[in-house]
Amino acid sequence: MPSLWVDADACPKVAREIIVRAAERTATPTTFVANHQVPLPPSKWVKGLAVSHGFDAADDEIVTRLRDGDLLITSDLPLAMTAIERGAAVMTTRGEALDANNIRARVQMRDFMETLRSSGEHTGGPKGYSDTDRREFANALDRWLAKNA
Known about the structure:
Number of domains: 1
CATH topology: Rossmann fold
Organism: Halomonas cerina
Family: Belongs to the UPF0178 family.
Protein name: UPF0178 protein FHR94_000946
Oligomer: single chain
Helix content: 40-55%
InterPro entries: UPF0178
């Protein structure tokens, strides 16, 4: 059975709640990994893993534990690319599937935007997490679990 791995450092609370409910409903082992303790309800299927504070410590821990066929939930594109290379499925908290066909272009765009920002250009940040994002994520997660869990 595949496991769910959540890059919890930047996971919106509403997405975390969706993940917990889905894990409980489908009896899917789920681990939230962060460099701090993530508040989670008591559960047989859901656990938190707090790693040491350090650059990419949570990402490194996730990569070490990921298995082929697991699902990683993250918006961290370099982490997503590494997970895809290791055979994991990847989804953002907005329900977007990241895979070998789209990850390189997404990483290149991220790097381009980072270059613009470092040159003083104001590019704005990500849009807020909307009800549509919540619904798209919940539906995409349910579809993945129905197919893979």
